[in-house]
Amino acid sequence: MSTSESSYHHGALREALVEAGLRALEAAEGSAISLRELAREVGVSPTAVYRHFPNKDALLAALGDAGLTRLGAAQAEAYAAAGGDRAGFAATGRAYVRFALANPALFRLVFAHGKAGAAHAGKSDPAWDLLKRSTITLAGGEGAAADRLALQAWSIVHGLAMLMLDGRLPADEALIDTVIAPETFFPSANPR
């Protein structure tokens, strides 16, 4: 019996399948995820899987949602650890890039099958929500300045993450810290 089989409890099949899918995604870089294989790993029939995920796209969407939740949690933790404000804002960007590097297949899946921001089908996107809240605070309220800051910040950190994932830049901690510093977003600010 595998670890996931022994931890599966009746009524938690969907969660067990998502966890198994997340492990399979990283192990196979996403190319070999199979609903039948996940059923076997969790210890249920393929028919049971189809009650929760009618097809592979539904599973991938659920994995993308789980990825957004994990990304948002990593960013919220980084924001709090840095003390919020401008330092916390920059810390969320560094957490974004580090999350991408630590979870490349999941990160790519989030943007292939997920929908960020308001288009996220009414579901919460913790990463986007944190970005919007912090930009509204730092820009002094809602409006064009907050929207522009959110878009600029996301573009910078996503671009850096993709350049590193694609091997165009080295996945270097010092480079992450240098590129995503408070003064990147607030040129007149002193780093905290």
Automatic annotation (TrEMBL):
Residues of the DNA-binding region: 34-53
SUPFAM superfamilies in the record: Homeodomain-like, Tetracyclin repressor-like, C-terminal domain
Keywords assigned: DNA-binding, Transcription, Transcription regulation
Family annotation (InterPro entries): DNA-bd_HTH_TetR-type_CS (IPR023772), Homeodomain-like_sf (IPR009057), HTH-type_TetR-like_transc_reg (IPR050109), HTH_TetR (IPR001647), MT1864/Rv1816-like_C (IPR025996), Tet_transcr_reg_TetR-rel_C_sf (IPR036271)
A Gene Ontology molecular function term of the record: transcription cis-regulatory region binding
Superkingdom of the organism of origin: Bacteria
Pfam families, per the entry: TetR_C_33 (PF13305), TetR_N (PF00440)
Domain HTH tetR-type: 11-71
Record-given protein name: Transcriptional regulator, TetR family
